[in-house]
Specification:
single chain, four-stranded mixed beta sheet, alpha+beta, about 400 residues
C-alpha cells in the first residue's frame, strides 16, 4: 500500500473532486462521499471517515477542498458532535456504535448536545443526581440537566447519570447516548442576558435507554466523561483561527476605521490585548500539534481559561472604545439560534455573550484548579468527599 503522505492525500482529494464536482453535486451527497473516502478526519480509522493517517495532514485535505469551493459540514452548528461526541465514541464506543453514529454526525445530518451539568452539579459535576436504573435490557433515566446548548435542535445527546448511589460520587456514574426524540425528554429554553435562548434545560422522566447505547463499562462513566471534557476544552480554546480572528478582529477594525475614537490609554490596552490574543492563537496551534501525538491533556484547560479571559477583556475594551455607540444593542428578540456568532453581531452582543465564557465548558475556577494540580504540580485542594458514598453527601 502506498504511504499516506501529503502528495497521496492531495491525489485522493482530487479524485474525490473529480468524481463528485462540488458545483454539480448535492451538498450532503458530497459530504457523505468525502467521509467514505476517508477525508473527513484523516487520523480516524479506515471506514470511519479516516485513513489512519497523521492528524497533521488534515490541513492538506482541507486546503485542497477549500480551493475547489467544496462545501464544509458547517462545523459551528455541529461543534458538540464533532468536538466532544465523536472522540468519545471513537475511544469508548463499540464497533456497531461507531458505524451507526460517526457518519451522520460528521455529515451534519444529526445534531448532538451534551447532558452533563445539573442545577446542583455544575462546577462539581461528579455530584450529579440524575439517576439511571437498570430494567432488563434498558436503563430508566430520571433527572434534570441544564445549560444544554443545541438541545432544541439535537437528535442525540451524550449523557452521564448515576447508576450506583452507594459508591463515591466519581465511581457510581455511567455514560450513555440518549435519543432526544424519546418519550420523557422535555426541552425548555433558558433565556440569556443576550435575549436569546441558545441554552436549554432538559427534563428526563422515565426515559428508557437501551444498554446497547452505553459508552464504556457500567460505573466508569467519569473516566469516559473526562475524555469528553478534555476534548471540549480544546475545541473551545484551541480552535484554528487566522491572525486577528475571533474577538480581537472587530475591535482592531474599529480602531483602524475610526481614528476619532482613539485615546492613548485605549491604544496601550488594545496593543496589550492584541499581543495576548496572538500569543493565545499561536499556543492553540501548538496544542493542536501536540494532539498528533495523542489525546488532549490538561493543557486544554489552560487554553480555555485564556479564551474566556481574553474574550471578556477585549469585548469590554470594544464597548469602551465605542463610547455611547457601545451602549446600543440591536436586537433583544427572543429566539433559539442554531449557533453562536460572536463576530457577526454588534459590540453590545459580544460584551454580554462573553460573560458566559467563564462558565461554559468548565468554570474558570475549576479550570484553575486543574491547571494548578495537573500542569503545575501544586498540592491538591483538600477534599473530604472523595471516599464518601454519594447518597451520604450533604446536599
Amino acid at each position: 500500500m502506498k504511504a499516506l503522505d501529503a502528495a497521496e492525500l492531495r491525489r485522493r482529494t482530487q479524485d474525490l473532486l473529480a468524481a463528485h464536482p462540488p458545483a454539480t453535486t448535492d451538498r450532503t451527497d458530497f459530504l457523505k462521499a468525502r467521509f467514505d473516502a476517508g477525508l473527513a478526519w484523516v487520523h480516524y480509522p479506515v471506514g470511519l471517515g479516516g485513513l489512519d493517517a497523521p492528524r497533521s495532514l488534515q490541513p492538506v485535505v482541507d486546503a485542497e477542498l477549500a480551493a475547489a469551493g467544496a462545501p464544509d459540514n458547517d462545523p459551528r452548528r455541529i461543534g458538540i458532535g464533532l468536538g466532544m461526541a465523536a472522540p468519545t465514541i471513537l475511544g469508548y464506543g463499540t464497533d456497531e456504535q461507531k458505524r451507526r453514529f460517526l457518519r451522520p454526525l460528521w455529515v451534519g445530518e444529526e445534531v448532538w448536545c451534551q447532558l452533563f451539568s445539573e442545577p446542583g452539579a455544575g462546577s462539581d459535576l461528579a455530584a450529579l443526581g440524575t439517576r439511571a436504573v437498570r430494567d432488563g435490557e434498558d436503563w430508566v433515566v430520571d433527572g434534570q440537566k441544564v445549560w444544554t446548548s443545541s438541545a432544541h435542535l439535537a437528535r442525540w445527546a451524550i449523557l452521564i447519570a448515576r447508576t450506583d448511589p452507594d459508591l463515591p460520587k466519581h465511581l457510581g456514574i455511567s455514560y450513555f447516548i440518549c435519543d432526544m426524540t424519546d418519550p420523557g425528554v422535555e426541552v425548555r429554553p433558558l433565556r440569556q442576558i443576550t435575549g436569546e435562548a441558545e441554552f436549554n434545560e432538559v427534563f428526563l422522566t422515565g426515559v428508557r435507554i437501551p444498554d446497547s447505547r452505553r459508552l464504556g463499562p457500567v460505573g466508569e462513566g467519569w473516566k469516559v466523561a473526562r475524555t469528553t471534557l478534555m476534548n471540549e476544552r480544546v475545541s473551545i480554546g484551541g480552535a484554528r483561527i487566522p491572525r486577528e480572528g475571533g474577538m480581537i478582529g472587530p475591535v482592531a477594525r474599529t480602531w483602524r476605521e475610526r481614528p476619532d475614537l482613539r485615546t492613548h490609554d485605549l491604544h496601550q490596552r488594545l496593543l496589550t490585548l492584541w499581543v495576548e490574543a496572538e500569543v493565545a492563537r499561536l499556543t492553540g496551534t501548538r496544542l493542536r500539534q501536540q494532539l498528533v501525538a495523542g489525546q488532549p491533556g490538561p493543557e486544554g484547560s489552560g487554553m480555555k481559561l485564556s479564551f474566556a479571559r481574553l474574550n471578556q477583556e477585549i469585548s469590554g475594551l470594544e464597548v469602551e472604545l465605542l463610547g455611547e455607540e457601545g451602549l446600543l444593542y440591536s436586537d433583544w428578540t427572543m429566539r433559539r439560534p442554531e449557533l453562536v456568532d460572536f463576530t457577526g453581531r454588534d459590540a453590545g452582543y459580544r460584551y454580554l455573550r462573553s460573560k458566559g465564557n467563564s462558565i461554559e465548558g468548565g468554570t474558570s475556577e475549576v479550570l484553575l484548579n486543574i491547571v494548578a494540580e495537573r500542569v503545575l504540580g501544586l498540592p491538591v485542594e483538600p477534599r473530604n468527599d472523595k471516599d464518601v458514598a454519594w447518597k451520604d453527601l450533604a446536599r
